[in-house]
Design brief:
The protein has five helices and eight strands. With about 190 residues, the protein is an alpha/beta fold. Helix 2 links the parallel strand 4 (about 60-65) and strand 5. The chain is globular, with a radius of gyration of 18 Å.
Length: about 190
């Protein structure tokens, strides 16, 4: 039997989440930007500076991926592929991982990814952005940068993890009676 009180509570929780998202945006704005250096990363066509990744956009979204060895990062990237054109219409978008450019290109081709990728191998980029732990291990996340004249500013960042706002799979699972129920992503389900 359907409980209309439970449905009302769920609707109220969704409203609270929307209000919290607005408070997060306000807190980020109050924190102010962080000026960063113009990091050099590798591509199949040679080295590229972070400032060059903006193209003609004012803003740049960089996904900090752990690379092809991580099925969770692959899950997120599969989802980014579907929204890439929408994101790229508003801001530049790139995935940065420790994998060499040739390995990135091969893995991306195998998955049908269309977004650009760069390699931060041999740089301090991931660590400086807070996505390398003290143990040396990588952590996934996203940083948003703004180009302001000759300065590069990081204006926002967020870690990626199961259940986050950057992968819709978890939210669909939230609608199932048992949630994700211990589900883990794989590279293939065949």
């Amino acid at each position: 039997m359907h409980d209309s009180n439970a449905a009302a509570r769920v609707a109220e929780f969704r409203n609270q989440i929307a209000e919290l998202r607005e408070k997060i945006r306000e807190a980020r704005a109050a924190a102010g930007p962080e000026e960063i250096q113009d990091y050099v990363q590798a591509t199949p066509d040679g080295p590229v500076r972070l400032s060059e990744l903006f193209g003609d956009k004012r803003d740049l979204i960089v996904i900090h991926s752990m690379g092809a060895s991580c099925p969770y990062c692959t899950l997120w990237a599969d989802g980014f592929n579907g929204v890439y054109a929408h994101l790229a219409d508003r801001a530049a978008f790139v995935v940065s991982s420790p994998d060499p450019p040739a390995a990135q290109r091969a893995f991306a081709a195998g998955r049908g990814w269309i977004f650009p990728m760069v390699s931060h191998a041999g740089t301090t980029f991931a660590a400086d952005m807070g996505y390398r732990g003290e143990d040396g291990g990588l952590r996934p996340g996203v940083s948003v940068f703004r180009r302001d004249g000759g300065r590069l500013l990081r204006v926002a960042d967020a870690g990626l993890k199961p259940g986050d706002d950057f992968c819709s799979v978890w939210h669909f699972f939230d609608l199932l009676p048992d949630g994700a129920a211990g589900w883990r992503p794989r590279y293939s389900y065949a």
